[in-house]
Amino acid sequence: MAVKGIGQVDKKYDGSNLRIGILHARWNKKIIDSLVSGAIQKLIELGVKESNIIIESVPGSFELPFGSKLFFEKQQKKQQPLDAIIPIGVLIKGSTMHFEYICESTTQQLMKLNFDLNIPVIFGVLTCLTEEQAEARAGLIEGKMHNHGEDWGAAAVEMATKFGV
Ligand code: CRM
User: Is the pLDDT of residue 10 over 90?
Assistant: First the structure.
């Protein structure tokens, strides 16, 4: 296991027994699509079966925390429980305070959901000052950063397998 840097470890986790939910917001569609694709690609690379990746959407990032809770409960009722959820949203600062309020409340509630649902709820929300920052983090600008969706897929598999929650 070669340690590449803080938070980046080469060890691969086996996701073949996992069922992972991806819940994405629909604002900033092009960036969202790329992040969702990156997450799916990584999940499949780590062994998660395509049929065990369940994708749903909500209008905006503000809806991600409650949407994730309802998503979790719906899958449980169907007796197809999720082992982790990756909520994905892209928040880009506008000219009002809206951005700050949505960032703050969404982040707090997604963190809280980890403890409430007792499964990993990944922080798949970009909070960017410009569209370019978001595009770079979605792997849409060549040579600039990588697709963070891949990191979120890897984090979901690691967290759902490592501690056996
Ligand atoms: C997002 O993902 N959502 C944004 N939303 C929508 C918000 C939510 C609505 C309904 O509850 O409030 O869906 O998450 C926004 O309203 C804005 C506008 C910000 C502004 O400056 O007016 N931005 C986003 C966003 O960037 N990403």
Answer: no
In which region does residue 134 sit, left (phi positive, over 0), alpha (psi from -120 to 50) or beta (all else)? Answer: alpha
Instruction: State the pLDDT at residue 8.
Output: 60
Instruction: Give residues (CB < 6 A) around ligand 1.
Output: 25, 27-28, 59-63, 89-92, 94, 96, 98-99, 102
Would you say residue 10 lies in a domain?
Answer: no
In a domain, 8, yes or no: no
* Pairwise CA distance, residues 4 & 58, whole Å: 35
The two structure tokens encoding residue 64: 């991600």
Nearest alpha carbon to residue 20 among 139, 124, 137: 124
- Is the whole model's pTM more than 0.70, yes or no? yes
Q: Which of helix, strand or coil describes residue 106?
A: helix
Q: Which domain holds residue 26?
A: 18-160
Q: How far, in Å, from the CA of 57 to the mean position of ligand 1?
A: 14
* Count of domains observed in the chain: 1
Cα-Cα-Cα-Cα dihedral of 71, 20, 165, 160, to 10°?
Answer: -140
84 vs 12 pLDDT, higher one: 84
